[in-house]
Design brief:
Blueprint (H helix, E strand, L loop, with lengths): L17 H10 L4 H19 L2 E4 L1 H23 L17 E5 L26 H8 L3 E6 L19 E2 L2 E5 L5 H8 L6 E5 L5 H6 L3 E4 L19 E6 L2 H11 L7 H5 L7 E4 L15 H16 L3 E4 L8 H15 L12 H12 L2 H22 L4 E5 L30 H11 L4 H6 L3 E8 L9 E7 L5 H10 L3
Parallel strand pairs: 2-3, 9-10, 9-11
Antiparallel strand pairs: 1-3, 4-5, 6-8, 7-8, 7-12, 11-13, 12-13
Helix pairs in contact: 2-3, 7-15, 10-11, 10-12, 11-13
Length: 490
């Protein structure tokens, strides 16, 4: 497959920002087939080392790309003849844009593995809400990306496919649960990608892979999941290389928002009062100390925000120490009701098997009690956050972890399948909470949040490992968060 250079010598399709590629596709500078074939070639070349994709649907992608090009030809012919254009005569918003979906959401005709060896392999009969929305917007699906089993963890490793690795250091994890999608975007296998976030699953991999990751507020976009969610924790959001590309996807995800996110990114935000905090609701049960690289990123982010004219001051946030038990109860409830044959439960990972057993042993009253507590926790936390325009934390407390670090598996050395995972479920879970202690409470509160890659351990972009900050805003502040990310250079 030959690389196309639509913007002059030396620029290939995968190097284009998503906004620029969208414009090239809509103008005819690049055809949908050219873009699709180019990214498929990138995937074929790089995915064996990266593990970003579980399933590549190349044949269907090329069929869909050809159909998109035929539609483009009809539109151009109609416009050239001076005829009115409407209905099938209009190009969809993301005409011909290649992307992929994490393998927790159904795509018609493709198996949804949920990252589990314990489930039957049956193609999904219809698209889930998120693929249906984005396909209607004109995207071309290239396949399904790597996830942890049932999306439960902050790393994307399972027993059915090689682990998803960090493009900046293949021995390190790309995070989770949208780790395969984040790795694919960071490595130029996709221009951008939708992720889903129930406890940090967009923001954690975005931070690990040096991307902008936006978790919208509750109810704004489809969840992207095909499993239950009693805590209403999960929401879909973009993984992108910059704020403008993330805004472009938001315009596709929320087409009736009353204003363009992409237009908003081009405007300067007002001067903001930003509260900086290291407080975490996990500290009482899992005391942790942020690594120096996390604090360096926080200081860099603070400096950038202050240089942009915002006021940043330390904020003391008080969290109820009953939070960890209540969140874990709500977060793991869906795995307790997952339809898994008893004779296949031994195929589950230790963490999933343990939390499934506990969820099944837990009473409905206990779950309802936890959900009621989380609603009160959200009200209390939102009140405290309300003293500030935005809240600022590190994105992660540690640098991206080595592959196998959470589980004790040996596939960090490049071998797969891995040896038996030898860390217990509780130790695995504790490591995750210490790694990403500032993410899950944002889901409980239903608030928007963004991670921004402000720092590199090697001193400059592409050298060393990325580290970032998280900004949490009030309900409805998605456009503001994107504006601030763009204002400080991302």
């Amino acid at each position: 497959m030959t690389a196309v250079q639509p913007t002059g010598a030396g620029t290939e399709i995968h190097e284009l920002p998503a906004v620029r590629l969208r414009d090239a596709l809509r103008s005819g500078e690049v055809s949908a087939r050219e873009a699709t074939a180019h990214f498929l070639a990138r995937i074929e070349d790089r995915n064996p080392r990266l593990g970003a994709f579980i399933n590549v649907t190349a044949e269907q992608a090329l069929v869909d790309a050809d159909a998109a090009d035929k539609r483009f030809a009809r539109v151009r012919k109609g416009a050239g003849a001076g005829t009115s254009v409407g209905g099938d005569g209009e190009l969809p918003f993301l005409h011909g844009m290649p992307l992929a979906f994490k393998d927790l959401t159904d795509v018609a005709g493709v198996v949804t593995t949920h990252g589990s060896a314990a489930l039957d392999r049956k193609p999904a009969p219809v698209d889930g809400a998120l693929p249906a929305l984005l396909k209607a917007a004109g995207v071309i699906s290239l396949g399904k990306t790597q996830v942890p089993e049932f999306g439960l963890t902050a790393y994307s490793e399972n027993r059915i496919a090689p682990p998803s690795r960090n493009p900046y250091a293949l021995s390190r994890s790309s995070g989770g649960s949208s780790g395969g999608s984040a790795a694919a975007v960071a490595a130029g296998l996709l221009p951008f990608a939708p992720g889903s976030d129930g406890g940090g699953s967009v923001r954690i991999p975005a931070a690990a892979c040096g991307l902008v990751g936006l978790k919208p507020g509750r109810g704004l976009v489809p969840s992207g999941e095909s499993s239950g969610d009693p805590g209403r924790l999960v929401v879909a959001g973009p993984l992108a290389r910059n704020a403008a590309d993330a805004a472009l996807m938001m315009d596709a995800l929320v087409p009736a928002a009353g204003g363009s996110f992409l237009d908003a990114v081009g405007r300067e935000p007002r001067r903001l009062r930003i509260g900086l905090t290291l407080d975490s609701p996990w500290s009482a049960i899992f005391p942790f100390t942020p690594e120096p690289e996390a604090l360096d990123a926080l200081q860099t982010g603070r400096d950038m925000l202050e240089d942009a004219g915002h006021g940043v001051a330390e904020a003391a946030i008080r969290y109820d120490n009953r939070y960890p038990d209540a969140f874990t109860t709500a977060w793991t409830a869906p795995v307790g009701t997952a339809r898994i044959s008893p004779h296949r439960e031994a195929l589950l990972t230790p963490l999933t098997r343990t939390f499934r057993r506990r969820a099944q042993q837990r009473s409905a009253a206990k779950l309802n009690e936890s959900l009621a507590f989380l609603r009160q926790f959200a009200r209390d936390t939102i009140t405290q956050y309300g003293e500030w325009d935005l809240m600022l934390t590190p994105a992660l407390a540690q640098t991206p972890r080595p592959v196998g670090w959470f589980t004790g598996a040996t596939h960090g050395d490049g071998r797969w399948p891995a040896a038996e995972w030898d860390h217990d479920a509780d130790g695995d879970y504790r490591r995750q909470c210490e790694f990403a202690p500032w993410s899950s409470m944002v889901n409980v509160c239903g608030l928007p949040a963004i991670t921004i890659p402000v720092h590199w351990t090697g001193g400059q972009h592409g050298h060393g490992l990325p580290m970032g900050i998280q900004l949490v805003g009030p309900a409805g502040s998605e456009a503001l968060l994107l504006q601030v990310a763009a204002q400080i250079g991302f």
